Amino acid sequence: MTTDERPPVVELTEEEAWKYVEKTFHGRLAFSVGNQPDIFPINYYAHDGVLLFRTAPGTKLAGVTINSHVAFETDGILSDEAWSVIIKGTCRELDHSAEIEEAEKLPLKPWVRTPKYRYVELTPTSISGRFFNLGPEPDPDEL
Amino acid sequence: MTTDERPPVVELTEEEAWKYVEKTFHGRLAFSVGNQPDIFPINYYAHDGVLLFRTAPGTKLAGVTINSHVAFETDGILSDEAWSVIIKGTCRELDHSAEIEEAEKLPLKPWVRTPKYRYVELTPTSISGRFFNLGPEPDPDEL
């Protein structure tokens, strides 16, 4: 019998999951073009219920423009626990000068010294998260 | 003028990218069902040019069975540098008892105490990676 009585997986509430997203600044954006999946790492800033990220014209921006439905994942891993949050939602590029000016006031900077002047906003339609108590696989005889 | 002369982004060769993948055990799998993207965190083991992961029957296994084309991302972030590798490829579930027995000898264990007895193998069709020297955004006047 195991001495580890922690549940291996705990479903997070939407509020709990969003708190993890707000405290994190790096995730991955997946989208689909012609039923083929693609994925990119992004750094983002979460505020007021949306995620904002910056990009330059290219595959990533083209992908979310062609198919605005995206899946996003962010996670964190420690030695004995981990969490992961998955957001489904839609993306749109900010195109009004007023909203771009507002976005420029946010603490969202590219991580590398390349210019990325386009802003994309991800509005969640669903958010789910799980917290993992890491541990060994169960003995099949105990199940 | 900036004093940081490191290139902000360095494209990795396939060999360099694969070395990062082999040294890492956690990534995210994206796939597309009905042109809608989905994404899951996975822990994996890379060996002999393929990635192996374990799963239980459910959305993840159903997704890669319905559309075997997947995109995979893994990354690592330090204070002043980061890397990310993206693999495109196809998935198949191991179904021969001989190959399942071989897979069971590999150091691939679920991270949580839930049973995951199905093995899925991801065979890359492309691999690309980037190394990032993290730093402040460039001054537009310097571009």
Characterization of the model:
Two copies of one chain form a homodimer. Chain A is an alpha+beta fold. Helix content of chain A is 18%, strand content 48%. Chain A has helices at residues 14-23, 59-66, 97-104, and strands at residues 9-12, 26-33, 36-47, 50-55, 69-77, 81-93, 118-133. Chain A has a six-stranded antiparallel β-barrel. In chain A, a hairpin with a 2-residue loop joins β3 and β4. Chain A is globular, with a radius of gyration of 18 Å. In chain A, 34% of the residues are buried. At the A-B interface, β2, β3, β5 and β6 of A face β2, β3, β5 and β6 of B. Chains A, B: Pfam families: Pyridox_ox_2. Chains A, B: InterPro entries: Pyridox_Oxase-rel, Split_barrel_FMN-bd. Chains A, B: This is Pyridoxamine 5'-phosphate oxidase family protein.
